[in-house]
Design goal:
three-stranded antiparallel sheet; 7 strands; mainly beta; N-terminal domain of TfIIb
């Protein structure tokens, strides 16, 4: 596992907004998913599935229900 990716902690909201650390673009995704989330601007990987909650790279800037 890459050390740049961190687990989502204590966030039980349904959707999160992740800020790309490379270009600053923000992507919205479901907290629990089964596909890799990539930045739509630069193509960087922002989240990888674990069979539960995502491991994310970047900053969570918002949560939604």
């Amino acid at each position: 596992m890459n050390k740049d990716f961190k687990p989502i902690k204590g966030n039980e909201k349904k959707f999160i907004k992740i800020k790309c650390p490379d270009c600053g673009n923000e992507e919205i995704t479901y907290v629990r998913g089964s596909t890799e989330v990539k930045c739509s601007v630069c193509g960087a990987t922002l989240a990888i599935p674990t069979g539960g909650k995502y491991l994310i790279r970047g900053e969570i800037t918002g949560t939604f229900e």
